[in-house]
Amino acid sequence: MRILITNDDGINAPGLEVLTRIAEAVAGPGGEVWTVAPAFEQSGVGHCISYVHPTMIAELGPRRFAAEGSPADCVLAGLYDVCVDAQPDLVLSGVNRGNNAAENVLYSGTIGGALEAALQGLPAIALSQYFGPANARLADPFEAAAAHGTEIVQRLLADAPWDDDAYRLFYNVNFPPCPAADVKGVRAAPQGMRRGTRHSVEAQTAPSGRRFLWVRGGDQQADPGAGSDAAVNLEGYVSVTPMRADLTAHDALSRLEDALG
User: Fold this and answer.
1) pLDDT (tens digit, 9 = 90+) per residue, 156-177?
2) Which end of the chain is more exposed for a tag (fewer CB within 10 A), N or C?
3) Is residue 202 part of a domain?
4) What range(s) does the Survival protein SurE-like phosphatase/nucleotidase domain occupy (predicted)?
């Protein structure tokens, strides 16, 4: 199996090392793991692509490349520049430092990488490690992802539904904020929404007198809705959420047709 991996935390991120080990185990002894990851951190860029300027790419080692672009750029680079002799069988994105559950999904570069792979017609899985008081200060805060990631990817490849629709399925996996030994299991869960909390900005004034704005995330412990991805993560379960790039609100179409006559 040939696997392409990327992330949004950058080529030197510890989560990418975890993903490399997961990918190598999934690919097997005769498989190949190719890395194309951002040269610098790209957290929060979503599905951004560098449409109006070129992306520099550098080979750092065997099957290992850094691109000055977003995770979606890296997937495009992997498919159309790095792996031109044979397309990958699977694209993995992560392991992100922090959760990509609930509304975080819409901002996530990790999700953006997996989404681009799905748009290109390839099976794709995004993986993220929720951080919290129970794991943030561990010697390896990614240990839940490291311990359970390979099995979950293998189970998804073997048993989960996959399709080749125009907007094909991809999967969003979030590991709970706890030590690996405390993970209770795996749950299929819908994307949640943390009620009453939103991204915002905070103003600061530099010594030069210039005013800058820092983006602030919402409260990650706010109620995301029972049974949702973030909710089961906080209960100690790995969440797996099937996703598509289609943003149509299908539940509203018939009512809209009635409203438009």
Assistant:
1) 999 999 998 999 999 999 999 9
2) C
3) no
4) 3-195
Beta pairing class for 57-61 and 64-67: antiparallel
Q: Residues comprising the binding site for a divalent metal cation?
A: 8-9, 43, 96
Alpha-carbon distance of 6 to 4, in angstroms, equals: 7
DSSP β-ladder status, 170-175 and 237-243: antiparallel
Rounded Cα distance, 237 and 64, in Å: 32
Is there a domain that residue 24 lies in? yes
Q: Band the pLDDT of 220: cuts 50, 70, 90.
A: confident
The per-residue pLDDT for range 47-99, each reduced to its tens digit, is: 999 999 999 999 999 999 999 999 999 999 999 999 999 999 999 999 999 99
Annotated binding site: 8-9, 43, 96
Residue 219 pLDDT > 90, yes or no? no
201 part of a folded domain = no
Tell me which residue range forms the domain holding 171. Answer: 2-196+223-260
SS3 107: coil
Total number of domains constituting the chain:
1
Let me know if residue 215 belongs to a domain: no
Crossing angle for the helix pair 14-27 and 143-159, to the nearest 10 degrees = 40
Element (H, E) at 156: helix 143-159
